[in-house]
Amino acid sequence: MFMNENKIIIRFDVDMKQEFEFILDAANFLEDLGIKGNVSLIVGYDNLGRTPFYKILNRKIKNRNVFQHSNFNLIPKTYMLRTLFSPYNILNLKDRIKSLLKYKHEILCHGLEHPKWSYDILSETEKIKWIEKSQENFKKIFGRYSEGFAPPCFVFKKSDVKILQKRFKYISTISRNKKIIFYKIKDKVDLIDIPVTIAGPDSYILDNSIGCGAVPLLDYLLSKCVSERSIIKYFERIPISKIDTYYFHLIYEFKSYKRLLEKVLLILTEKRTPAKFSEILKDVRGKKYESISYRCTL
Question: Of 174 and 189, which is predicted with more confidence?
Answer without folding.
Answer: 174
